[in-house]
Amino acid sequence: MTQSELVTQPKVEPVQEVKAISSPTRKALRRFRRHRLAMFGVCVIIILVIAALLGSETAALTQDLKNANKPPSAQFFFGTDRTGRDVFARTLVGGRVSLMVGLVAVVFSTLIGVTLGALAGFYRGWVDMVIMRLVDMVMSFPVIVLLLCVVALVGPGIFKIMVMIGMLTWTTPCRIMRAQFLALREKEYVEAARTIGMDDFSIAIKHILPNAIAPLLVYMSFGVATAVLLEAGLSYLGLGVQPPTPSWGNMLNTARSISTMERTAWQWIPPAICTVLFVMSVNFVGDGIRDALDPRALNEK
Amino acid sequence: MTRYIIRRLLINIPVLLGITVLVFLFTALAPGDPIAAYIRPEMGDNPILRAQLTKELGLDQPLPVRYFRWISRTVQGDLGFRAVGGQPVASTVMNALRNSSILMLTALAIGCLVGIPLGIISALRQYSRTDFVLTTLTFLGISTPSFLLGLGGLYVFGLKLKMFPIGGMVTPGQPFSMVDFLQHLALPALILSAGYVASLMRYTRSSMLEVINATYVSTARAKGLRERQVVLIHAFRNALIPIITVIGLALPEMVGGAVITETVFSWPGMGSLLIEGVSGRDYPLVMGISLLIGITVLFANLLTDVMYAFVDPRIRYN
What we know:
Chain A is an all-alpha fold.
């Protein structure tokens, strides 16, 4: 190879080419938008959330015994319940309660999981040992079984449910974070950060956490669906959100007795359909996010 | 292999002990008065009786002593008595366990018989219309919560179309007949199998796709084997691992029961029993059930790992 060849070798890229390169985030967004079911899910979720926010609390709680157990009509779109409350309004407000339980529970579980997972992966040794055995133990039980046991102890209630779901579902984010920390803590750039005197906490937040965002996002979307379902199940059994506060789950309680299930079907069918629609949509979105963030798909156009 | 199993069993001992401690602490630290459940209201609140019961039940002893007493009895299969009603917990749980396993095994069997073949078909005709329809159905099946599916199914097929009885295991007041039992079993088993069908189909499809283009599959074709043999013996066997995982994960449910779906169908299994225990604050019952479930999960995991090595000789543990 001659001197002149070495000099002329690197070709200057045309400026237009630079424009065509898009960031991984933008690529992921584009892939997500192309996922038809996920987009459908986003639309359904937006509609449900807007409807839930518009619900009127007074209409949902006002009892009118003269109008009890009325079937759907122009005045009451979804009819009325046992004490004459408007089922339509209760479905909207109930949605607000259920969605809030789902969101708050997932935030709780992510916070707990991320913290414990980071501790386990960063310090390893006995800290890791203790935390991972704890994960093994919690994971030995199906969540719903554990949840029921804890309800037996602390009793039902909306706030308790959020905290409990969070405290029993942190194992997945914990394992995600631990894996990231174990993989990254020996990396040169983490080593470099330590050399310039950065403390453990900042390293964790600035240099390792961002790498775990993708799997955590996927977890959180599926997690919301799980939490909403757990709430629905518990409240259906009368062990979750307590009346008069409506939630999709405790509205299903009417269906526990075969006679009211048949006679006043309008009381439980709307919240049941809303729950199914929401859980399905969230699953579609979660799937879309997973596909969009899949590193194997990163190089694809 | 034997050494691997023994090692795994040994590793599980601390986790198992941890579970027993958790279950024990759960009831020991429970708020509320454990004595209260044993005193009938007409007896009144008698301090002497209270003190006597405390002594009889061993509640005056320190926690570690109580734990060792409890664990030594548990190891002998004695789970104590229910706080409500007083029946022995062990036999109540065994009854419920039998009912749950019948239901869940039927559901899982339907799941395997329908899900695995459909998954194979879906993989063999990748991107065809059949594949598209099946994958969409899988997706819907996985995202639909089973207890809501149960409510809908009970309403439509039980109440409206009157095709199935509406809950329970047998028609009350009638002598036991197999036909009657199967009629009661059909709807909940079908509803619960939907989830298994969907997940088995999805995993079978994706793992078949991974092996279907492998060189040994081409070799098998080149040797002139019939397509049936190629697919079932050469490809499918190597695609079994994820399928076993799904089945392994289903085992604990066999014992835990489909907690809420069982209640929907008033199926007298572990799920219904657990809910009964929780609603009635029947701690000995809740303890017995959760202990059994915890132990099963540990063994199910072990069994799954052993099965891996059994179907796939490439996996060697050491």
